[in-house]
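Appendix C reproduces, verbatim, an entry submitted by the partner laboratory led by Prof. M.T., so that reviewers can inspect both the input and the predicted structure.
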Amino acid sequence: MELAEDFWDGPPHGSVLLRPVRPRDEREWRRVRNANFAWLGPWEASSPVIPGEDQARLTFRQYVRSLDRAALNGESLPWVIEYEGRISGQLSVMNITLGSLRGASIGYWVSQEVAGRGIAPLAVAMAVDYCLFERHLHRIEINVRPENHASLRVVEKLGFRDEGIRERYLHINGRWADHRTFALTREDIPLGLLHQLRTRATPL
């Protein structure tokens, strides 16, 4: 599934695309990740060391296969964020749950060189609308470290509801870290989040 949105005419937003991660992305993906090591490091998800658990690192091809497998199983929607034809970040819809919840969570990052241009809010809005109106989910949440001011600006600009602190919620950069949970349900945005962005009085 590829999602394109071009309703802003030119700079500073240009064209944003969400598309699956592909094996041939390895060189560009690694270049972006390496260039943003210090920028992304404090917010990186990590896994606690558990005796007896396999801690082997995946090759990029194995990583892509694992993403594809989770997507085929209906567990997640993993995308890269392209801006003006270049990989500029990544967005994943995770923990997709059907039944009486019909919810999921979203995680994302963008490179430092494009931060502040409205790309992350636009990518999140595209993903939210797809999940709520195409996949018929009901609730989307985003969990943000209280110190991550850039990500806090994204959820605030998009009107996500602040549902409070979850203590030691996720393992981040080597330790269990508190997160603030933000959420939207379909009733909050009956015309969609992209429509809400289009009709804002001021740009992102």
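The first strand starts at residue 3 and ends at 5. Additional entries are available on request from the coordinating office.
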